[in-house]
Amino acid sequence: MRKLIVLLVAVISLPALAQSQARPRPKDMQVVEDLATPPKVKDGKNVPAPIVTTRKVGDDTIHEYRIGGKLYQQKVQPAKGPAYYLIDDKGEGKFTRVDGPEPKISVPMWVLLEW
Asked: Is the distance from CB of 88 to CB of 95 less than 8 angstroms?
């Protein structure tokens, strides 16, 4: 049984050992520092990157996100406290507050038994 455990540990540790050994770099290899990020594509069309505008209102910092000149999201960073987001889901100009990058999941609650 001990031999089996030792063999199993040895087999599991082999890939980690192989990764830890540095491979020599070929002489003709060049390091590329800056690569252009590819454009986002949706339904076969390029999606423009959002334009972010930062402004200060009092002690608060507001980052406004626009695509095609239309404001769709605001990130508000108060002087004290965590940041929150104002998001226009339907494009009507009505913003709803979200306390993180993703809306919180509401857990369904049903009455299963009652007496």
From this structure: yes
Residue 20 has pLDDT above 60, yes or no: no
**Residue 44, phi-psi category: left (phi > 0), alpha (psi -120 to 50), beta (remainder):** left
∠ CA 8-10-16, nearest 5°, is 120
Q: Is the pTM of this model over 0.70?
A: no
Q: Among 48, 46, 53, which Cα is nearest to 73's?
A: 53
State how far the alpha carbon of 94 is from the alpha carbons of 16, 36, 60, 86, in Å: 53, 35, 21, 9
Question: Residue 51 and residue 69: Cα distance in Å, rounded?
Answer: 8
Say how far apart CA 36 and CA 41 lie, in whole Å.
15
Degrees (nearest 5) of the Cα angle 76, 77, 80? Answer: 135
CA distance 115 to 112: 10
